[in-house]
Amino acid sequence: MALLEIKNLKASIEDKEILKGVNLRIEPGEVHAIMGKNGSGKSTLSNIIMGHPSYKVLSGDILFKGESILDLSVDERARRGIFLSFQHPTPIPGVTVANFLRTVMKSFHGKDMPVKEFRSSLKKEMANLKMDEAFAGRYVNDGFSGGEKKRNEILQLSLLKPSLAILDEIDSGLDIDALKTVCEGINQNKTSENATLMITHYQRMLNYIIPDHIHVFVDGKIVLSGDRSLALTLEEKGYDWVTEGATP
User: Fold this and answer.
1) Is the pTM of this model over 0.90?
2) Strand 195-200 to 31-36 pairing
3) What distance in Å separates the CA atoms of residue 48 and residue 36, rounded to the nearest whole number?
4) Residue (of 81, 227, 89) closest to 169 by Cα position
5) Antiparallel, parallel or unpaired: β 139-140 and 82-85
6) What is the DSSP secondary structure assignment for residue 163, as one 8-state letter?
7) Which of 56, 67, 169, 224 could form an SS bridge with 216, CB 3.0 to 4.6 Å?
């Protein structure tokens, strides 16, 4: 059974159709990357999978572990095991990273984790991401650098261990050292039972996270799919050579 299956999905925002018939199937253990120009619909797809209320599904379906999730709220989808990292994480002044993460984990799992166990897990995952322990006492994304914001997103991923991780341009705003650290954190969370859907403009991230499949988005549709070599071709030729008539 596919972990995620998207069937002929069409969707709009403010009466403007953005997705125009997306088909995608992700199996457990796989890493998929979606690439394409700005405005092609990549981030829209991630938001719709997560259930963003500003978007309207016009037709098609999204199946997660064999069941349609179109009628589920954002929090219900999260509890089912879907995680979305934000392209532009929002600051939450007055709420520490540690308190935020403990609250998120309680909501995700439906029960409190003992304080000692939580602190041990948090310390371990922060060490993996080369984060100073003092980071846990800072306010969420308040005054964070781009790299700190993205590491905080992967810290959430590492603690929650979702079945499906959707990473929306997690590489944006990162220098090469921060990119390596973030990618190492993502790789450490890969198992044969979960899956990752990455959205990116550039193939540099794919030097560290090897995708099983790459899909090119043009005007709200996947027009071309391939293996990692496709990313190298895109790096060399750009997106102009990819047309609506390309074979999916």
Assistant:
1) yes
2) parallel
3) 17
4) 89
5) unpaired
6) S
7) 224
What is the Cα 182 distance to its own chain's centre? 13
Q: Which amino acid is at 195?
A: A
Which of 48, 108, 86, 221 shows the shortest CA–CA distance to 167? 86
CA angle 220–225–228, rounded 5-degree value: 125
Length of the chain: 248
Mind listing the pLDDT tens digit for each residue in 52-107?
999 999 999 999 999 999 999 999 999 999 999 988 889 999 999 999 999 999 98
Yes or no: say if 28 and 193 are a contact pair by the CB < 8 Å rule: yes
Topology at the third CATH level for domain 4-237: Rossmann fold (3.40.50)
**Tokens representing 24?**
């995608």
Report CA-CA distances (Å) from 147 to 44, 170, 181, 202, 229: 23, 10, 10, 17, 28
68 in the Ramachandran plot: left (φ > 0), alpha (ψ -120 to 50) or beta?
beta
Write down the domain spans for the chain: 4-237
The b/e string for 86-117 (b: 16+ C-beta within 10 A; e otherwise) is bbebeeeeeebbbebbbeebeebeeeebeeee
φ, ψ dihedrals at 237, nearest 5°: -105, -15
Nearest to 69 by CA among 5, 14, 19, 25: 5
Q: Which of 20, 14, 23 is nearest to 52 (CA)?
A: 14
The answer to whether the beta carbons of residues 203 and 234 sit under 8 Å apart is yes
**Which residue is associated with the tokens 């308190």?**
99
